Amino acid sequence: MQADGSKRLLKPVERIEFSEAVLPERCLYAQNETYLESCNSGWERQWKAGIGTVFVLFPCLLIFWGFYGFALHPVVFDHVLLFWGASENAATSADLWFGWLLLLPLSLGCCVLLWLWFDIMGVGTCFFTYARGRIRFNRVTRKVYLLRPRGCGGNAVFDWDRLRAIVDMDGYDLLARKNGAPGKAAYYSLILYHPPFDADDPHAKGEDAIFVGPTLPMQQEAAPLWEYIRRFMEYGPGQEGIPERIGQEHTTYCGKPSCSQYKLEQLPGVLETAYHMLSQVTCSWPVFPKEWQSDSGIGEPEDKPVQTGAVMTALVYRSQGKLGKADEIEFLRHWGTAEALQEAMSRKA
Questions:
Q1: Are 254 and 322 in contact (CB under 8 A)?
Q2: Handedness of CA 317, 322, 323, 325 (dihedral sign)
């Protein structure tokens, strides 16, 4: 994270001069009097992992099948196994030589490739894990609660006052920048750095980092996002430029998004949507442990979207008929039009 002195580490009490508290679009799950909950960076680009996996996994599976069909299957059944079934003729020595001398090394190479792709390059965090990360800033407990895949450090709880913000870090652009990629390939993010508990500890126990909010198109957008979170934690909603309630344009759906929901929020192409869903269908939605009491009694956004200020989630629930009459009226009172509120109240009467 270059948090060794080359980047400025901002404390929660430090105000960034000449920076307003501004939220980017589609960054929060919910905001209320007690907590503000943000999404993680990079999730909207998860389709890239999907399309890459298709082009990596399918050729590897083809080679694995060939190795089994020409090397292993003939040893047991004395026939070569092709895609359309076993060969009618007995396996020859040429078939075995082809399987063991050519397809075996290729299969071993595919194993290395899959290890590099899913583990070293981190693509494994996009499949059979959490659908999205969740970062909750709680003003009551003065803690930050984090849900993330085990391979990315696992769930964690941080003291708010120990976190340090890095607002000038091109976190997703490190590799591209070193390779001289054009500026349009850069992805930026607000990073919260948690220093080790003991500065002299050679193992740096406790050191961590969180990528907060959506992927940012410009580095300058990280400072306003940090200033918004900082003012929320220090002053609360309705003060210092923090609105009492956020608008739907700043919220994102709290749950596994459907295909239509993903298209509504991110406006992707057909292929991007298909590959994103290929990744999401294998994932599950993370839930905060009850023992954390991270909601401080208000409730979870996916359970009480109106009460917790999860506007996008409430919109989806309302369209699906999941909101009760009282919740619908409360939602329209804060985020709806006067006409819609009057119509809902007349229906209740």
A1: no
A2: positive
